[in-house]
Amino acid sequence: MKFKPLYIILILIGFAIKTNAQELLKLEDAVKIALENNYEIKLAKNDLKIDETNNYIGNAGMLPSINANITDNNTVLDTKQTQGDGTERELNNAKNMNLSYGVSLDWTVFDGLRMFARKEQLNILQKQGEAELKLAILTKIGDVYLSYFDLVQQQQQLKALDTAIVISNERVRTAQNRYSIGKASKLEVLNAQVDLNADKSLQLKQQELFKNAKITLNQILARDVQTDFTVTEETTIDKNLNFQELKDSSSSQNPQLQAQLLAKNSAEQQLKQVKAGRYPTLRITSGYNFTRSEASLGFITQSSGKGFNYGFAATVPIFNGSQQNRNEKIAKIQVENATLILEQQKLNLETQLNTSYQSYLINLELIKVEEKNLEIAEQNLDITLSKFKIGTITPIEFRTAQQNFIDAKVRYSNVLYLTKIHEISLKELAGNLSF
């Protein structure tokens, strides 16, 4: 819009001087602060660390367990023994000691491939953690975008009301001058003052909305909610979004869809682990032990030994009260449920993409319409003000032109914000929202 009346230029300069005293919070800085401070992202990062820590072959049951063992048994007994030849031997407080210690190994070498399914499930759980972290990051970036551009919108509307007050002050001054020379009635002055007060009231309400929007953004950034700042004056719109590209991107990058796909894979691995219960389990055992025993009474009063032992144990399931069949049926139903939820998620995602894209296209057209309306209303207001000063139009006609300009400014600001909301929503659904 090339047409810019002098009084609007003055109010823009005044607004710029006022905001320059505050910190300018750029969008990229807001995103950076949110990603560093946000509690949900920190929690998601910690959950991912837990998943990474759990994802190793030992947790899947692939490694042996090695233990150091020691057993020491001591007794003090009043003992009486009768030998084969009838001889009796008796000893009070007879001491007996048995000591054994060593290292043992226990290794399950086959469990129906359950350990391999468990390891794959751990891989999936780690990927789910990564998807959940990405979702937390995308969601928070989206929250920052929406809150930031809401502030831009509120700031633009506040500027429009500041302009309205400048114009209303000019109208009051003109009406008083006309009244002083007898070309206007006192009623005209009073009406101008009433309209000025109405504009001031709207300005105060808009200031309240603007300050509350700042508090909301500070909360999202997880910093002191009283931190004062200003935002950029323009809402930039990406007008080149392509639906097919968004759809293709969402199928491979949407974190909610990916998380549900991983949930289905996890259910399938759980079914494999349950089916492993039909197969034998083979364990290898081994160890090296030392033994020592002492007895106060008997043929052998002391003995000791050391050596290597080894063996295996196999378990073959035959019947367990039909628990195996029941567990497999439940696991299959869980896989089916995960598949249904995945298909539902795909349908919901496609629906959201289509509706948001249609709204995005409509609002792009509305931007053109409202931009033209604002330019016309601005020119009309400037002409009306000139005519009002020389008394060729009525105060009601002037007020109508003034109100039309403010309404056009607010509508233009609103449509920019709505378009930005749909743009952000589309990029978030596509999984590629970033700065």
From TrEMBL:
Domain of life, per lineage: Bacteria
Primary site of residence: membrane
Entry's Gene Ontology molecular function annotations: efflux transmembrane transporter activity; porin activity
Subcellular location: Cell outer membrane
One Gene Ontology cellular component annotation held by this UniProt entry: efflux pump complex
Record flagged with keyword Chaperone: no
PANTHER family xref list: OUTER MEMBRANE PROTEIN TOLC
Family stated for the protein in its record: Belongs to the outer membrane factor (OMF) (TC 1.B.17) family.
Protein name (database record): Outer membrane protein TolC
Organism: Flavobacterium dankookense
